[in-house]
Amino acid sequence: MLDIKVVGPGCRNCIELESRVKKALAELQAEATVMKITDYQDIAKAGILTTPGLIINGKVILQGKLPSVGIVKTYIVEAAKNEK
Q1: What are the chain's domains?
Q2: pLDDT tens sequence across 48-66
Q3: Cβ distance 80 to 3 under 8 Å?
Q4: Which of 14, 25, 32, 37 is catalytic?
């Protein structure tokens, strides 16, 4: 199962990224644990310099951008391929 972390302090884009991740998972009928990282120290430890950020299976996928649901789906599919 994929481990997805949405990183950000709770700004509008961070909330929207979480929503898009959940929508992408639903459309793909994929299972994943989705966690939010909102603490500034934890954000820095994760290596995210600009929010929102997205980490899948421990790898920073993006930061400082709000991708479309379609792009999020691509990230999820790629991560699932690499997981096997």
Answers
A1: 2-83 (3.40.30.10)
A2: 999 999 999 999 999 999 9
A3: no
A4: 14
